[in-house]
Design a protein that fits this description.
By secondary structure, the protein is an alpha/beta fold. The protein contains 20 helices and 13 strands. The strands form three sheets. The protein has an eight-stranded mixed sheet, with helices on both faces. Strands 8-7-13 form a three-stranded mixed sheet. Strands 10-11 form a two-stranded antiparallel ribbon.
């Protein structure tokens, strides 16, 4: 596009933009645009940017208070997020939000153990405490699948409480995985290299057996029993899907990405069905990286044969889904240099000239949002494919173009985009210099592959 064309596009964006000034009314127009959508997916352009977490939380609060959203589902492992869910609904032994976040202790710690998440979880507990009964409280759920062995343990713990004989049978099935020593990656390698037989049948059979006993297990105590059964069922489903995921890691990357995002979509579908069984209108806010929530069909991912959660949700729910992305031009970010490293507060390089971020940077507003469904010259001008930046848990400025950019068509990728021109790093709850707040070494658990492996997103 010529310089004149860019200048014209920037002027059109300036006219169409909704400025964000820090007032309580900033997102009035966004909530109106969301309308009656039941699934609002809110992204982030990095896993370490304060403003993305903060603004996503503010939008979510309004969706809960003003539009009746009853669940927040995040890019975190299901059993780890379950501790947060129990805290915000007042049924755990944790007395503070910080304690409730303790199970979110896999790499990258700062992704969910940061002050913005802490503040939101504290708010959600306070909000839930004002509601009349347990069934009305807003839940907090994990969508991801890295916690294969933790989820097995969660299934066994549940069955030991409700049906000890079934727990023995489940333990026997899951013993198929014992050779891996609770190392998920080792399991995947052994199962695909012929060193050990895959445990696919055992994982599938355990899920089917649990589902067969639904009526028996889920009824006795109303909503609480329903929730506990759903948690156990979801953990069994996670084991099944994680088993496939860790095998696919040693086959080809596209397959593992697709298995992971398919699992996220399945989890969201089953969460919606669970809420409906409880007589609730399933209205769910989803928090994950732009790369998971922006429609993959509008990006390079389509050429690679990849799909993602945003695409799958749009295909299933149509106008009931509303997708929101974030962009930034410059600032700082919390990110690691290598897998397992503590975060560093890194300076973002200014966005590349041919990127969406640079176009939005030229608008004379420090932060604003755009309705990408509008039929105006700003949105029409943004339909030309451009580079878009994505930073996961690793940031590599020296290989910026190759490591952190992909081609996208922004108006087809999202329904709205929020641009914050200069952003700052999240504040981790754990010491970024190599120690956690409890002074334990900041390192990966030996038993689990790092979260967001292998894509860093």
């Amino acid at each position: 596009m010529s310089q004149e064309g860019i200048a014209s596009l920037v002027d059109a964006i300036q006219q169409a933009a909704y400025p964000l000034t820090g007032s309580a009314q900033d997102y009035d127009a966004l909530l109106k645009a969301i309308g009656d959508a039941r699934f609002v997916l809110i992204g982030e352009a990095s896993h370490g940017t304060h403003e993305f977490y903060q603004q996503r939380a503010e939008i979510t609060k309004r969706l809960i208070q003003e539009k009746g959203f009853i669940a927040v589902a995040v890019e975190a492992d299901f059993p780890n997020a379950d501790r947060v869910d129990r805290f915000v609904r007042g049924i755990s032994k944790d007395t503070t939000a910080r304690e409730a976040l303790d199970d979110l202790d896999d790499f990258p710690l700062w992704m969910w153990r940061n002050t913005d998440v802490l503040n939101f979880v504290t708010w959600l507990r306070q909000h839930n405490d004002t509601l009349p009964d347990y069934g009305a409280k807003v839940g907090f759920y994990g969508l991801d699948l890295y916690s294969m062995f933790a989820s097995m343990e969660a299934v066994l713990t549940y069955l030991e409480q409700v049906d000890p004989e079934a727990a023995k049978q489940a333990r026997h099935r899951y013993s198929c995985f014992d050779h891996a020593g609770e190392d998920s990656e080792s399991y995947g390698y052994a199962a695909t290299s012929g060193l050990n037989a895959p445990c696919e049948d055992e994982a599938v059979n355990q899920l089917m057996e649990l589902q067969r006993r639904r009526e028996e297990y889920a009824q006795p105590d109303g909503n609480v029993a329903e929730d506990e059964f759903f948690d156990a069922e979801q953990n069994a489903r996670l084991v099944k899907n994680a088993e496939a995921y860790y095998r696919s890691m040693f086959q080809r990357r596209v397959s593992s990405w697709n298995v992971r995002d398919r699992h996220m979509a399945e989890t969201l579908d089953h969460l919606a069905a669970h809420l409906e069984r409880q007589g609730k209108l399933p209205k769910v806010v989803v928090w994950a990286h732009n790369s998971h929530l922006g429609d993959a069909r509008a990006t390079d991912m389509k050429k690679l044969g990849e799909w993602n959660l945003g695409q799958l949700v749009r295909e299933r729910y149509g106008q009931d889904a509303f997708l929101v992305g974030f962009t930034t031009y410059s600032g700082t970010v919390a990110a690691a240099s290598h897998w397992g490293d503590p975060p560093k507060f890194k300076q973002l390089r200014p966005a590349l000239p041919e990127s969406y971020e640079t176009i939005l940077h030229q608008v004379e507003l420090p932060q604003f949002w755009l309705d990408l469904r509008d039929q105006n010259s700003a949105v029409a001008g943004l339909r030309q494919p451009r580079l878009e930046r994505a930073i996961g848990v690793i940031y590599s400025p020296r290989t910026e173009r190759r490591s952190h950019y992909f081609q996208a068509q922004l108006p087809a990728q999202f329904d709205a985009v929020i641009h914050i021109d200069n952003t700052s790093a999240v504040e981790p709850l754990d010491h970024p210099g190599g120690e956690t707040a409890s002074h334990q070494p900041y390192k990966l658990k030996a038993a689990e592959v790092p979260g967001t492996f292998p894509s860093s997103l």
